Amino acid sequence: MAESLFDFCVNAGVRTGVAIAQGVLEVSTDGVVGPVTLGRLNAIDGDFFLAAFTLGKIARYIHLVKKRPANSRFFYGWVRRAMGDI
């Protein structure tokens, strides 16, 4: 889980990556890793987190393509990278 979160934070920025993870964890999405986020990360099933986090990453990529259609050339590479985590 840590490797997946780290990789996406490098790719999308720390606040974005953490906010997407927080959405999966169903905690406040402030983009900051604090004790509540860490507690939920330590308690959640790893396979469930990776699958849900992957969907969150793909949703982010869809948003980026809709916002800027020129990004569509990167979309399948982004999805392949995201799918490598599950």
Give a topology summary.
Layout: H1 2-12, H2 14-25, H3 35-43, H4 46-67, H5 72-83
Number of strands: 0
Percent range of helical residues: over 70%
Give a quick account of the main beta sheet: strands, pairing sense, barrel closure.
none
Can you count the helices? 5
Describe the structure.
This protein has 86 residues and is mainly α. The protein has helices spanning 2-12, 14-25, 35-43, 46-67, 72-83. The longest helix is centred in the middle third of the chain and has 22 residues, at 46-67. It is globular, with a radius of gyration of 13 Å. It starts with a helix and ends with a helix. The mean pLDDT is 95.
Descriptive terms for the model:
77% helix, single chain, 86 residues
Short description:
This protein has helices spanning 2-12, 14-25, 35-43, 46-67, 72-83.
